[in-house]
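Pilot study result, target chain (276 residues):
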Amino acid sequence: MTNYAYPEVLIDTQWLAKHLNDSKVRIVEIETSPQSDNNGHIPGAVLWNINDLLLPNLQINLEVNAIEKILSQSGITNETTVVFYGSDSTIGGFIFWLLKLFGHEHIRVLNGGCQKWMSEGRPVTTELSSFTPTEYRAKPIDQNLRVLHGEVQLSIGRPDTVILDVRTIQEYQGEHFLMKPPEASERAGHIPSSIHIEHILTLNEDGTFKSFDELQMLYGSHGITSDREVFPYCAFGGRSGYIWFVLKYLLGYPKVRNYDGSWNEWSRLPNVPIEK
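Predicted structure:
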């Protein structure tokens, strides 16, 4: 992992195995579906449900009080090193972006997630951990980590900017709307001039990240280079937040901002262009 721009943000299963009982480390599992915890949990982990991070309209909840509440309930302080994992590496990258948005400094992503941990036969438990609540204090949102729809619209077709669609090809081509077939007046498709590279192409079969050279080739071959500003988007801002992490922390791209409104917002705006 030393070839990445910021290799310290990733940990491997060996490191985590040595820190399962470290009081300065909090392990957080992100549950994305009711079936995701059927095979057990990494010992010492607390569970966050992805729905707890979303508003009823499925936008990411960016209220300071909401993030402070979930961090406090997990026994996390401003000095805690928080390790995130899901079934693979993607959800950890998204939550990395979310916590960076609120100024948390010590964040790590388990490379390969639970998939890697389980494949190595490492210990799991059916019990989730709980800790004494803290009084976490988040910083105001760092607006430099996100981009709003108005600026995205102004960036359509600009040579110095890349609008990066990281959804599935079915979503990009308008066959799916927010990961399901479009219904009634739902507008499906993609933002004009956007480049499509599905987020999952960044991972190996074992759920770990591809190498620096492989990732650089993946994006460079599509003209997505470090001198251009990059605005990734997806359906709700989660997969694009993950790609923000890949581009910013693994490849070292200096000008990346997540369009967290993503298709959930863009498709409902009355006066923005859509292509299929």
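One observation from the pilot: DSSP finds nine helices and eight strands in the chain. A full batch analysis is planned for the follow-on phase.
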